[in-house]
Amino acid sequence: MDLNILNSEIQEFIDRNIGVSISKLALLKNPFPEVQWISILNQIEAKTKAKDKLPNWFNTKNIIYPSKVSIEQTSSEKTALYKSTVVSGSSLIDLTGGFGVDDYYFSKSVTTVNHCEINPELSEIVAHNYIQLSIENITCHAGDSLNTLESLNQKWDWIYIDPSRRNDAKGKVFMLKDCLPNVPDNLNNYFKNSEAILIKTAPLLDISAGVLELENVKTIHIVALENDVKELLWELHKDYLGKIMIKTVNIQKDKTETFDFIWNDQSQASNYSVPLNYLYEPNSAIMKSGGFDEVSHYYALNKLQKHSHLYTSANLISFPGRIFEIKNCIPYNKLEMKTFLQDKKANITTRNFPETVEYIRKKWKIKDGGNSYCFFTTDENNNKIVLICNKIQ
């Protein structure tokens, strides 16, 4: 870690160039020869990435940033804040500390936090940044986290792990055993040190596959930010053998949508109907969860078709997702399309439909945009239909 990067003139230069093209800056002569030009450019690029994702870091003086890749891979402050509501107690150890955003928020919920990072330079950067951020209850450890876990030799209220995929596993289906650390192989060891484990994985991981790989899963949190699923959180408790709770969370600017249900609960069945007055499209966290019958049952909504994952009702209700008023329901044929949509402007979505959005636009010369929202889907009798709607939410 080169502390010369904290020179006030260099920091002012970095701030002045936030958002400026790095490729253009790279052509300039380095005005600060005491620091490598590539290091300064990296700070500009990484801090630009942090502006919206990590506002506390961005707005704090003398923060040092790692590579832009580390910033891209780290949790956002909003998802880290959510994680902090899952844990509590007097002690937590993070075995895969990274840039330390999660631990910053864990430190608000847990008395003492230990940050483990195998990269010594990154560990040093994180320790420096915590001082700038006025965080005093996090201890940083450089080196292999399993060695740290063994040397500290204590019981923890929580162990937190954010495993990363190995480079040699890129071509494979995403499995936890393909990650570092290999959580399934180390679970017994982890449970010797804590009775509660929180694991963060990418949304690419299939929920059913994760349940098969792990043991003692109590709760799975599916966390979306502005309707984009960012991470899965696996909450494990020693010796737990009960039903698994699925918690879906969609964090938005002005509200947070939540929907919880018991995983693989066979008692929740959907009812089906023709399109009624209103159409409901679940948010991305619910879509990832697979709780389609549970949504239908809980909100007393009818599904259009088993595989369409669109819902309808005669009366308007509050719902975690997009809501539309259905203005027309037409069969998908040449006459109806020419009458209602050809050469017009509309926002198009397909659900359980054999043609792509791009193909439909080209075929019927439909321009993108406008106030009309069209769902190309399939009804209960497997007929192709188009729902022409106005958006409510």
TrEMBL record:
It comes from the Bacteria. Residues 321-391 form the THUMP-like domain. Residues 278-320 form the PG-1098 ferredoxin-like domain. SUPFAM superfamilies: S-adenosyl-L-methionine-dependent methyltransferases (SSF53335). Pfam families: PG_1098_Fer (PF22013), Thump_like (PF18096). This is Uncharacterized protein. The lineage of its organism: Bacteria, Pseudomonadati, Bacteroidota, Flavobacteriia, Flavobacteriales.
